[in-house]
Amino acid sequence: MPTERAYHHGDLRRAVITAALDVIATEGPAALSLRDLARRAGVSHAAPAHHFKDRAGLLSAIAAEGYGILSTALSEAEDLRDLGVLYVRFATAHPAHFQIMFSPELLRPDDPHLIAAREATRTQLRTAVAGYGDDPLIGFMAAWSVAHGFATLLLSHNLDGPLDGRDPEEAFRALTAEMFRPGRVRE
To answer: N or C terminus of the chain with fewer C-beta within 10 Å?
Structure first.
């Protein structure tokens, strides 16, 4: 029979999310199970379901949390280039969140918290790139693609060789300065 502790956990929701982030960071999302997370938290196997219902609910909560963290980080941007650096910094500081946020097949598409958090962050990004270029949507996609692509390549260690020990944030700043310098685009 489970102990009293199995039914009274200080902050089970946070404990399960923290354990899930550890599993995702070390073993990937495929290794995640609510039963294992309950064991790690020292609660009954059914306890996490009270907070998340199922695995997709847990992953949706992680993604929503990630969008919140990202949005807070991006609010400190001084300009568009800085916004990209903060995006890359978020990805490297929160790789498990980053991975889950952009794996829609793992998430509940109708989760209201996820929808709201994702849309708030996208609105923030769209607002930041407004005025760059002729088409705001294309500007948004271009800026997001550069930052997201760089972050993804960085996290997957595909930039280890090209960076050759260089600070990734400084490399990103140099990359965007080169990409968007006046006269760079030839007709």
So the answer is: C
SS3 state at 185: coil
Transcribe 70-100 into DSSP letters: HHHHHTT-SSHHHHHHHHHHHHHH-HHHHHH
* Alpha-carbon gap, residue 110 to 183, rounded angstroms: 45
Helices 168-179, 136-155: inter-axial angle, 10-degree rounding: 150
- Tell me the C-alpha distance between 82 and 54, whole Å: 37
| DSSP string of 11-78, one letter each residue | THHHHHHHHHHHHHHHH-GGG--HHHHHHHHTS-TTHHHHHHSSHHHHHHHHHHHHHHHHHHHHTT-S
- Is 133 strand, coil or helix? coil
pTM of model > 0.70: yes
How open is the CA angle 25-28-32, to the nearest 5 degrees?
Answer: 105
- Cβ-count burial of 107 within 10 angstroms (0-12 exposed, 13-18 middle, 19+ buried)? buried
The tokens of 43 are what?
């609660």
Average pLDDT across the chain, whole number: 88
- pLDDT at residue 165 tops 80: yes
Backbone angles phi, psi at 135, to 5 degrees: -120, 110
111-134 pLDDT tens trace: 999 999 999 999 999 888 887 778
Angle, nearest 10°, between helix axes 112-129 and 55-74? 30
